[in-house]
Every structure is written in C-alpha cells, then in structure tokens.
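Batch manifest line 324
LIGAND: MTE
JOB: complex structure
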Amino acid sequence: MLIRLKPQYPIRPSEITPEGVYHGRRRFLAQLGLGAIGLAASACGKAGAPSGAPQPQAAGDSAGFKLDKRTDMAGKEAPTPYEDVTHYNNYYEFGTDKSEPAEYAGTLRTRPWTLAVEGECDAPGHIGIDDLLKLFPLEERIYRHRCVEGWSIVVPWDGFALGPLLARFKPNSKAKYVAFTTLYDPKQMPHAGGVLPWPYREGLRLDEAMHPLAFLSLGLYGKALPNQNGAPLRLTLPWKYGFKSIKSIVRIEFTQQAPQTTWNISAPDEYGFYANVNPGVDHPRWSQKTERRLGELFKRPTLLFNGYPEVASLYSGLDLRTYF
Ligand code: MTE
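JOB STATUS: finished
ARTIFACT:
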C-alpha cells in the first residue's frame, strides 16, 4: 500500500484517522462481502494502475481563478496545506485508500462536461462546465470540512452559492428535495470495484440546498479542482459530514420524495440522510465527540453543525438523534 507522507506530519495519514475507524470501515466493507475487493484494489498499488494512465492535474497546471471576494468562514484558522488537501482523499470511485484518488483520478475526463438539471422544475436544462464557470462571480470561502471518520481539514474553496444556481431552473411547488449524482463510468474509474452502489448519490432538502452556506465548488486554493477533489464541480456543505459533499456531479434533480443516498443505502443505521456534524450523536462504531485536523497530533472537540450555528433553524423541531 502506498502512503504519501508529508515530512511535517508527526504521524502517518493512516494513523490520523483513528485506528478504530480505519479498521472499522475495512470491517464494514468486509461485512458487505466487499472487503476483499477493496483490499485487493489497494494492494494493487502502483502496479495495478493502467499503464500510460494520465497523471492527476498538478498544482500549477490550471490557470488561476479570478475571484470576486474572499470570506474566511473558518475563524482565521490556517488552511490545511494544498498538498495534504489533494493527497488525502475519499473518492471511492478511485479506490478506498486515502492516497489512491490522487494516484488514479487522472483517468477522469473533465472536458467536455455537462450538468443536467431536471425533475420538478419549470426550466429544466443542461449546462456545460465552461458556461457554468461564467454564470456567477467566483468567490472563495474558507470552510472547515469534517469527515464522518473523525478527521478534518480547513480549505479555501472557490465557486458560488448553490441556491442561485438552483433558482435559475425554477423549482416548482412539488420540489421538496434535491438529488445529486456523480458520473459513473467504469472506463474512467477502473479502480472503483464493487465497494459501493454506483453511481454515488446524495440529497438535500430543498431549503438546505438553498441555504447561503451550501456551496458549489469549482476550485480550491484559487485553482481548478484537482480530479481527486471532485473535478470539475462538487458540493461543499460545511455543516454536514464530508460524505454529503458529492464530487464530480453530472445530474441534479428536484424531487417530491427524499432521494436515496449512497452511504444511507449501504448502511442505514450508520449514515443518515441528514448527516449533520453532531458531537452529541455518536456513530454506532465510534465517538463523534472529537476530531483530528490533518497535520495535528492532538484531537479537538467537534462542534455542533461543525461550528456553523447559522443553519440551526433548518432543523428546529427535529430530534437530531432520530434524524441523524
Ligand atoms: N463523492 C463521490 N462521488 N465519491 C466519494 O467516495 N466521498 C465523500 C465526499 N464525496 C465521496 C464523494 C467523503 S466520505 C468525503 S469525506 C469527501 O468527499 C472528501 O472530500 P475530499 O477528498 O476533497 O477531502
């Protein structure tokens, strides 16, 4: 197994994820009868990569974005270094090990790319990624990102609020939810295996999707998104566990019913539809009270809604232990 190490890390990436969690996910895959596939995929390591596979986009490859404004929404915390944000990833279509997406996601073709917006709306349509990039002024938001596994990062994301984009397609009165789908193409994602039911799917209530914090990221650190981070467009939902922030989106659908979501289908008792960061509701197999920032040795307390209390009114009256 290949693990990229940053010299300043006091510990290895596999140790940053609490060991119980790390092995817990492996056990979970094994319980699904898929562990062998996942382990085999990571055991393949470099030797398993298709020869001549394009390499992931390097940091300097993309033209810098012209950003309209920059907002620090992470309380002046230093952002996690670019190298770490782009080499410690969850993108199971490219492998289950944290180092694999950076290694293998170069096979993802992000041009041409079309986003379809359909369902309960009066103006369904398709939009190409380069037109999407020009729709709204691009802004940078520095957000905290908390993975359900217990690690976290601080990232300057570039893009625009999700709400104004959705509004252009005129959701009608039947639209109560929004469903998101990732591209799934086994030719471009030869390391995906059978670990999860593909395509990767996520969903939000419409009012959550319209909340000003819900963000569509097209870049990070002022550059186009690297493939391993979900190029060419992904959600960024800083108050929810990271698995809600679906990558490489090809389809958005307004629906009347709550859409099915990948991790909820896979393990409904462990991964809820809401997935709001909540130190008061433990994962059945590990505590959610604390987290470890990548690159830090000691854990810190996890905050309700990941420290974004402005979303609390979305959930007033809901028992967050039931609607987890
Ligand atoms: N989107 C897709 N399509 N596939 C995935 O495996 N992983 C999720 C989320 N979006 C995932 C995904 C999880 S578990 C997390 S924590 C974040 O992406 C990780 O984002 P990052 O790799 O940019 O830190």
